[in-house]
Amino acid sequence: MAIALIAIVALFFLFAGIFTDYLWYDSVDYTAVFSGVIVTQILLFVVGAVVMVGIVGGNMLLAYRMRPMFGPGMFGGASGADRYRMALDPHRKLIFLIGIAVLALFAGSSFGGQWKTWLEFVNAVPFGEIDAQFKEDISFFMFTYPFIRMVLNFLFTAVVLSAVMAAIVHYLYGGFRLQSPGVHASRAARAHLSVLLGVFVLLKAVAYWYDRYGLVFSDRGFVHGASYTDVNAVLPAKTILAIIALICAALFFAGVVRPGGMLPGVAFGLLVLSAILIGGVYPALVQQFQVKPNEQAREKTFIARNIEATRKAYGIKDSEVIPYDAQGEANNANVSADSSVSGVRLLDPNLVGKTYQQKQRIRGFYDFPDKLDVDRYPDPATGNMRDTVVAVRELSGPPAEQDNWINRHLVYTHGYGFVAAPGNEVDAEGLPNFTAKDMPVTGPLVDQTKLTETRIYFGEHPSGAEYSIVGGDRNQELDYPFSENNGTGTGQKNTTYTGKGGVPVGSFFNRMLYAAKYGEINLLLSGDISDKSKILYERDPARRIAKVAPFLSLDNNPYPAIVDGRVVWIVDAYTTSNAYPYSESKSLEAMTRDTVTDPRLVVQQPRDQINYMRNSVKATVDAYDGTVNLYTWDEKDPILKTWTNAFPGVIKPKSEISDSLEQHLRYPEALFKVQRDVLSRYHIEDPDAFYSGQDFWNVPNDPSGGDVKQPPYYLSVKMPGSPNPSFSLTTTFVPRQGPNLAAFMAVNATPGDDYGKLRILRMPSNTTVAGPGQVQNNFQNKFSGELNVLGLGQSKVRYGNLLTLPFAGGLIYIEPVYVEIAGGSGQEPYPILRRVLVGYGSKVGSANTLEDALKQVFADADRLPTTPDNGQPDQPDQPDTPQQPNLSEEELAKAIDDAQAAYNEAQTALTKNPPDWVAYGNAQKKLADALKKLEGVNLSNASPTATPSPTASATPSPSGTPSPSATPAASPSPSS
After folding, report:
1. What is the DSSP string of 51-108?
2. Quick one: pLDDT at residue 873?
3. From start to end residue, where is composition biased (Low complexity) (predicted)?
């Protein structure tokens, strides 16, 4: 009775898991995926279970029926086998049924797990390309070959298990005995096992034949793909071994009609010997004595095949390499004519997340990610698109003192608001100049985009809870808090979810299912759940898309955008494979890892080793109601066509992408990282040059991030020959053996005719152009004095993204410098933009604004590119190259003491209640005068007694916004 009850409970929980999955798919209108996958898995489970049970169980029954008719002692007395048989024989049917059931479960589960391989096989679409060796369409290797290997592996397992289980049955029932001086077996047992071994060897012959096709994935040679040894030794060896295996199989079958073990023994010996000599020794000799002494010449043809296949498979065959003789000195005419840097993005999305948190968090239960996103929105003044750093205000969960089940799941259900700031400007304090902010959301961007729905029920961490109960009759969901009574009190606005997303949980049955799913009795008993209530779960955009499209790989960086007045998450999705002939296979995780990689989403990749990748799908998730849309992006991709055959109607055609959505689509970061990794070697198309490897590149390490790759950057770039800047993804390369710049690469990231075009500016080999690491060192050496002055106290100098851009016939480096100041009592420090560093050739500049830094570098130009008015106060002109002030040690110490004293005066003025703003302003002026004296001084060489260490603290301004100007920091600390 107890066992039956346990079984019923277990089955109910299993049913609850499956049926709630169905309800979820129904809520997002993707039941076709659920039913398609489930039906395929069930069919394959049944086929796998039936075939495995039929083969193994049939051979066990056959062995039992072939048992010799004798009693114990026929071979000279009762043996151990007789005792085992007598103990098991009364229960043999039960044991057989249990064993068969377990076998069916494992075999069916294993075969059912191959549903992707099956669907790709039956829905395969030709590539229209053939491989270089076998002249087969690429689809054979992508879809047919994996299925054949799957079937062969399954049959091998079935035959091996059959042989083992048949041998056990024969042993138990006297078919053969293990006794001195050898094995004694009945003729029936010998015949049975000979047939099974013959079938195994026959399957091995088939496997040898198809192993020939698998050589296109070989890693034996200099590159991936069939090498000289594979084609000239292994390929004929596999053919010969297939023929020998057929002969051996025939010998095993002949052993059935000819008594004795001679023929099976000969077959076994021949098979093993030929596998060692022909399959192992011969290819090794060819590799050692023919290939190694002349590897470059022998492998040239196969390296060329690998280069061509790799460039096709990773979508880089149309990349354009442009010789670029970067000028070391600026040509005044070129500088005057090139205004492309005027709108360059200075806000570093990987740093200013803490600033957004400090200035726009509003309440402690809201949160922003540490790493923000870059999109494009129109400038209110000109209407031109410009780089914008965007984020949404998500809910991290209720305050600790209010953390109970009702608050966590029924009250604190969603985030609120879209926050944006143009990337090329800051306000007078070095803070983002927000164009969308606060609660309710206000700002010029809100009016431009007609943003009407700002609630964030679906996001990267939407409420800190696994699920939320929304809707219903009670207006109990916290919408947003607000101040009242002139700021002396607080209130909150409540709301009720009315979106179409979510699963109804008004019925007792559904509540019982979800109570079982989450192990939460409150779901069943709570009176706050009404007939109109819904449950929201699986709310992370990437997870939602992974469930509705399990055959796709996902980018690890979903980003929010305003589309048709609503906030939507945009996620790039890929088709990947590791079965493209001759293409180089690499780790997807390793190729996409850098200083901004989010490890949370690595699991979204169905496979790690890949040798083919396409950005075939653009996906969106509505932040309010969770609606998921999948759109075809690469209409030529055969893998995507294969999956659209398997799931018709699931992925919408490209023509259904609205204009409002298209203007926020961008070239995906993960694909670009993969392509730049591959192009570090495969920009070389000549096999001889490729073999030498002298011109291979590396992605440089992040100058501010340690021994990790520098991430690519989204920014507007004007490439040589282009009339206007375009929103692009950019990266740099350095030689394998040096820090100099080898190349600059950009891809047009804006949808249009030029979208996805990879352009590589290649530096001449006979000139030296400084790489990112060298430029960073140059900045730190030249400006260590003023950077250390910025770093007085306990705050830190944080280097922003070091941007590289083609400019005026050369390359310009631009790096924002932030000071991370204390955020106040109990709050984390946050960065403010304090300086902009510029380098061009041998000249460098440092100023409060990009425009002033450019003036230092290009002082002789007739007309400089102007930057937008960012609200910063005018700064005094500085010389072309900062000069070391001629200060004695005493004067230096006094200047530092003056700076310390002014800083302390400012802090004292702020501690008064109310703050003394007049005294604060006077102290700020004194601090500015002291800092001016110290500009250009290298404090690392100063007397240690002259180094102050004030304590940093929050410095609110009259407007209520912390003012960073009097908040120094300690020593430069690279951002991470």
Report:
1. HHHHHHHHHHHHHHHT-----TBTTTB--HHHHHHHHHGGGHHHHHHHHHHHHHHHHH
2. 37
3. 865-885, 942-976
Asked whether the beta carbons of 166 and 60 are under 8 A apart, the reply is yes
DSSP state of 442: B
The answer to whether the beta carbons of residues 175 and 67 sit under 8 Å apart is yes
Work out the mean pLDDT of the chain and round it to a whole number. Answer: 85
Give me the percent of the chain exceeding a pLDDT of 90. Answer: 62
The per-residue DSSP string of 353-380 comes to: HHHHHHHH--STTEE--SS-EEEEEE-T
Sign of CA dihedral 201, 206, 212, 216: negative
Question: Half-sphere exposure (CA, 13 Å, Cβ side) for 303?
Answer: 19
Distant-in-sequence contacts of 956-961, Cβ < 8 A, 24+ apart: 956/910, 956/915, 957/429, 958/915, 958/917, 961/359, 961/429, 961/431
Strands 182-185, 697-698: parallel, antiparallel or unpaired by DSSP? Answer: unpaired
Classified as helix, coil or strand, 323 is: strand
Residue 825's region, left for phi above 0, alpha for psi from -120 to 50, else beta, is: beta
The H or E element that residue 313 is part of is helix 295-313
- Angular region, 963: left φ>0, alpha ψ -120 to 50, beta rest: beta
Confidence bin at 130 (pLDDT 50/70/90): very high
pTM of the model: 0.86
**Residues 337, 341, 344: CA angle, nearest 5 degrees:** 160
- Helix, coil or strand: residue 275: helix
- For residue 200, what pLDDT is reported? 96
Task: For residue 236, count other CB atoms closer than 10 A to its CB.
Answer: 14
Would you state the structure tokens that stand for residue 466, as one six-digit string? 């696994």
Question: How many Å is the Cα radius of gyration of the chain?
Answer: 35
Report whether 897 contacts 926 (CB < 8 A).
no
Q: What is the torsional sign of CA 471, 472, 474, 475? A: positive
Neighbours of 659 (CB within 10 A): 9
C-alpha 576: how far from chain center: 13
d(CA 374, CA 370): 13
Give the tens place of pLDDT for each residue, 769-816: 999 999 999 999 998 888 887 777 667 899 999 999 998 889 999 999
172-187 pLDDT, tens digit per residue, is 887 777 665 666 778 8
CB-based burial of residue 207 (10 Å sphere; 0-12 exposed, 13-18 middle, 19+ buried)?
buried
Q: What is the pLDDT of residues 276-330, one digit of tens each?
A: 999 999 999 999 999 999 999 999 999 999 999 999 999 999 999 999 998 777 6
Q: Shortest CA distance to 604 belongs to which of 556, 558, 637, 651? A: 556
What is the phi/psi pair of residue 187, to 5°? Answer: -60, -40
Q: What pLDDT sits at residue 399?
A: 85
Please report the DSSP string for 931-949 in residue order. HHHHTT--GGGS-GGG---
Q: What is the pLDDT of residues 589-647, one digit of tens each?
A: 888 887 565 544 443 455 589 999 999 999 999 999 999 999 999 999 999 999 999 99
Cα 361 from chain centroid?
27
Do the Cβ atoms of 367 and 463 come closer than 8 Å?
Answer: no
Q: Which residues contact 23 (CB under 8 A, 6 or more apart)?
A: 503, 510, 513
Top pLDDT among 398 and 548 is at: 548
Please state, as a whole number, how many other Cβ atoms lie within 10 Å of the Cβ of residue 941.
10
Q: Tokens at residue 864, please?
A: 């400089």
* pLDDT tens digits along 745-774: 999 999 998 999 999 999 998 888 999 999
Q: What are the counts of helices (DSSP H) followed by strands (DSSP E) for the chain?
A: 30, 33
Strand segments, DSSP code E, in 718-828 are: 726-735, 743-748, 758-762, 795-799, 803-807, 810-821
Of the candidates 402, 407, 396, 397, the residue with the CA atom closest to the CA atom of residue 368: 396
- Outline where DSSP puts E strands in 119-168: none
